[in-house]
């Protein structure tokens, strides 16, 4: 429930590999395109009583980055893009709640990376895109970023 601390078990090695791959690819993108920053597993204030820790938080824009004190947690707001790697044990209700919280908190996109089904679900305020296999993960928020879904959630 909102405002309640919910302990979570550690993820699997595969889940950590996917998280690390996404973080590395976005970090590499920002090295060539310095428009933001990606941070793995950092607490982000989503609302007055809710803090979430996305697997990868993507923050965009110099002004927003200036508002983040690297010596303090949580980050003062939701990431522009929250990437979450679903675990096999995660229930649909919990995943939907995370997506809702991030979007209500100000995230523009939420990526759910689902290895079990070989999918990436991209949630925005306008709906959901379901990407599979050779489909390409792209975002208007990350100009020029493109990655085959199979390289993220199938071939890992």
Molecular structure report:
By secondary structure, the chain is α+β, with helices and mostly antiparallel strands. It has one domain (13-154): tt1808, chain A (Alpha-Beta Complex). 29% of the residues lie in helices and 29% in strands. It is built from four helices and ten strands, in the order H-E-E-E-E-H-E-H-E-E-E-E-E-H. The protein has helices at residues 13-32, 62-66, 92-105, 149-154; strands at residues 36-40, 44-47, 50-52, 56-60, 81-85, 109-114, 119-124, 127-132, 136-138, 146-148. It has a six-stranded mixed beta sheet with strand order 1-4-5-6-7-8, with helices on both faces. Strands 2-3 form a two-stranded antiparallel ribbon. A two-stranded antiparallel sheet has the order 9-10. Strand 9 (136-138) and strand 10 (146-148) form a beta hairpin. The longest helix is centred in the first third of the chain and has 20 residues, at 13-32.
Give the tags.
156 residues; alpha+beta; tt1808, chain A; two-stranded antiparallel ribbon; 29% strand
* CATH topological fold name: tt1808, chain A
Q: Radius of gyration in whole Å, from Cα? A: 15 Å
Low-confidence runs = none
CATH architecture term: Alpha-Beta Complex
Largest sheet: 6 strands, mixed
Question: Structurally, how many domains make up the residues?
Answer: 1
Name the CATH superfamily classification.
tt1808, chain A
Please indicate the percent range of residues in DSSP E strands (runs of 2 or more). 25-35%
Query: Class in CATH?
Result: Alpha Beta
Count, helices: 4
Distance between the termini: 33 Å
- Measured as a percent range, the helix fraction is 25-40%
Order of strands in the sheet with most strands: 1-4-5-6-7-8
Order of helices and strands: HEEEEHEHEEEEEH
Q: Give the overall shape, derived from the CA principal axes.
A: globular
**Tally of DSSP β-strands:** 10
């Amino acid at each position: 429930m909102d405002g309640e601390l919910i302990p979570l078990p550690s993820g699997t090695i595969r889940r950590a590999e996917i998280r690390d791959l996404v973080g590395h690819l976005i970090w590499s993108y920002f090295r060539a395109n310095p428009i933001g920053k990606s941070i793995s597993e950092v607490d982000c204030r989503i609302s007055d009583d809710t803090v979430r820790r996305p697997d990868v938080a993507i923050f965009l824009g110099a002004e927003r980055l200036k508002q983040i004190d690297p010596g303090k947690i949580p980050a003062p707001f939701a990431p522009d893009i929250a990437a979450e790697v679903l675990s096999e044990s995660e229930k649909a209700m919990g995943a939907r709640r995370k997506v809702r919280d991030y979007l209500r908190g100000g995230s523009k996109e939420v990526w759910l990376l689902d290895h079990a089904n070989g999918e990436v679900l991209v949630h925005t305020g306008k709906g959901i895109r379901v990407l599979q296999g050779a489909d390409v993960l792209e975002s208007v928020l990350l100009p020029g970023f493109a990655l085959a879904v199979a390289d993220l959630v199938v071939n890992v």
